[in-house]
Amino acid sequence: MVMAYIYTMVGEYEAALEEFDLLLSIPSHTSLAWLEADPLLEPMRNHPKYKDLLVKYAD
Amino acid sequence: MSEKSSLSAFIDELRRRRVFRVAAFYGGIAFVIIQIIDGTFEVMGIPAWVSRLLIILLGVGFPVAIGLAWVFDITPEGIVRTQSKTTTKQAKPLTSNRALIVITVLAIAFGIWGSWGGAGREDDPISVLSIAVLPFANLSDSREDEYFSDGITEDIMAHLAKIDAMLVIGRTSVMQYKGTTKRLRDIGQELGVASLLEGSIRRVGGKVRIVAQLIDARTEKHLWAETYDREVDEAEIFALQSDVARRIAHALEAELLPAVQRSMEIKPTENLEAYEWFLRGNEFLRQGSFTVAGGKSQLGLAVKAYQRAIDLDAVFAAAYARLSYALTALYFFHENRPPLAEQSQQAVDRALELNPDLALGHLAMGYYQNLVQRNFDAALQSYSRAQGGLQNDSELLSEIGLVQMRQGKWEQALSNFKGAAEIDPRSPAINQRLVNGYLYVRNYSDAAATLKNLESLTPDDPAMYSTKVELALLEKGDVEIAGSIVREATAYVDPVTVMIQGNQLIHRLGYWRFGLQQENIENTIATYSARRSETGRQKYFFSLGQLYDLSQQPSMGEAYYDSARMWLQDQILSSPGNFALQADLGLAYALLGEKDKAIEAGTRSKTLMPISACHW
């Protein structure tokens, strides 16, 4: 999870999204709701692939 | 014919054949018999299987009685077969066979339901072999002797836990009843046990009087009681503890295997003074584990007490084992200094050299392998060996669960946490671990239910509120609810304490970024600064940086992130293979805007410990 945050903070959103994709696919201390709420992740939420992630894990 | 009139005819037929009357009569008699069984059999010492058999027979007898009532009738001429009612013009009757089948099926279903606990059974079955050893009252003049009476209580518990199929409620749960005025019946119900052991210890000079009483938790009747007047020396004290355990096993008709009997006879040391230091160490270790405030100093005191015990008895294997455990906890949770880890390894090696079968030794080894070496397979093997001597031990089960979480064996981990919570239902630490497991597998409803239970146990625990905040954010991403939890917590705890808790990334980045404390940032900075000793260094630097960023003082924020970077680099010099330090260094660089170095340190951390090797 730290790596996903590091990528987000340095502006590597695609790499960050890959990390979050992995974290969402396994038991982990993250969720879509968390991604939507955390202000630190706000820049990443404008990336087009972020919406794909929302669709992939929406249920 | 309508269904309604058909049903009405059927009911008339039941009435005519006196089925209702027989059912009511049978039910009444059965109820009275069950009450007699419930109230007297246990007191008279009649085995529980006799009660169960009678209740089952009553259940089975019910459909038979109904069937007989349908078929036969009692008349002045004796018992005769009931005549079928002649067909009426209004209603076509159900055929006798069809009606009989319906009644029999219903009655059998009722009988089975009743005999299996559906009807009239108010309480869940509690195993006869379940006991809570309540803390013995310390009647000695010196409060210093508290550790002694608690230690005796704990040793009796440990002996009892060795008995196969015996559920012994864990220490954390029973210690909450120390000095309680609650009724024994209520305590038994809260802990879900059939028996309670209570007692007192009075130590005067070189003599000790120990009174122990075994009590039926439902009736509050004494099952066994004994007063021991002994000299305070190692032979007498250890013999007394195993004698109490043996007598309880006998009173509860538990089977004592020869191997268990032999293990009860083993004396941990020949030196009573060393044993007393060992007990003091255990008390400090408990106070130092699973706590934030004061944890470090209590662990330090535990280390000193165990070292004193070893000075007095250089072959005291259990003291070496516990010393190692305390040093590992100190190393992992508070001071990441390699010499501590080395001392821990030396102590556990010595413990197992002195006694290769020592369960506490294997527990300490597993703890070391998990937290220092990160060798999870080896840790599980050590814990498995420890289970040979520490059956039904909630601490051990819970540690096994933690390792399984790291390995990604989520179902097994949760199963072990639940098992630990069954043994120690009122342990905050175990319930906290269970909640954390549920959060990981995104089972938020069970996490909420367990948190509710946790809140009733520890309404003043900041870590509990911190976990509630995490749940609100993970489940709903609801910052408003999270904020209201922090505000509600102020009735019990300082909100800053809630904010500096947390298990995960929040350690470094804090809840601050969710704006939960924005209304009074300056005050929060002052409070947090005054309490810096309660948190790890990097967590403190990161959180202060976040707070200054929020208060629009970016240069101050940067200074703190740089302090984190320097401190981490210094730590990494002595622990280059520590993946957690590398991850935090990457985070510090990211906050300082040094992209390449941030990615480099983060990647190094991932290489050292990929998710596939450590899921948690």
In brief:
The complex is a heterodimer of chains A (59) and B (616). Chain A is mostly helical and 59 residues long.
Structure description:
The complex is a heterodimer of chains A (59) and B (616). With 59 residues, chain A is mostly helical. Helix content of chain A is 63%, strand content 0%. Chain A has 4 helices and no strands. The mean pLDDT of chain A is 92. By secondary structure, chain B is α/β, with parallel strands linked by helices. Among the domains of chain B are: 3-115, no CATH class; 130-267, ABC-type transport auxiliary lipoprotein component (Rossmann fold, 3-Layer(aba) Sandwich), CATH 3.40.50.10610. Chain B is built from 28 helices and 8 strands. Chain B has helices at 3-16, 19-40, 48-71, 96-115, 146-161, 171-175, 184-191, 234-251, 258-265, 272-288, 295-312, 317-334, 338-354, 359-371, 376-386, 394-406, 410-423, 428-440, 444-457, 462-476, 479-489, 495-499, 506-509, 521-530, 537-550, 554-574, 579-591, 595-608, and strands at residues 72-75, 78-81, 130-133, 137-138, 167-168, 195-204, 207-216, 222-231. In chain B, strands 3, 4, 5, 6, 7 and 8 form a 6-stranded mixed β-sheet that branches. In chain B, helix 24 packs antiparallel against helix 25. Chain B is globular. The chains are: A mainly alpha (59), B alpha/beta (616). Chain A binds chain B through residues 1-3, 5-7, 9-12, 22, 26-40, and chain B through 408, 410, 439-442, 470, 473-479, 503-505, 509, 513-515, 583-584, 586-587, 589-591, 593, 595, 598-599, 602-603, 605-606, 611, 615.
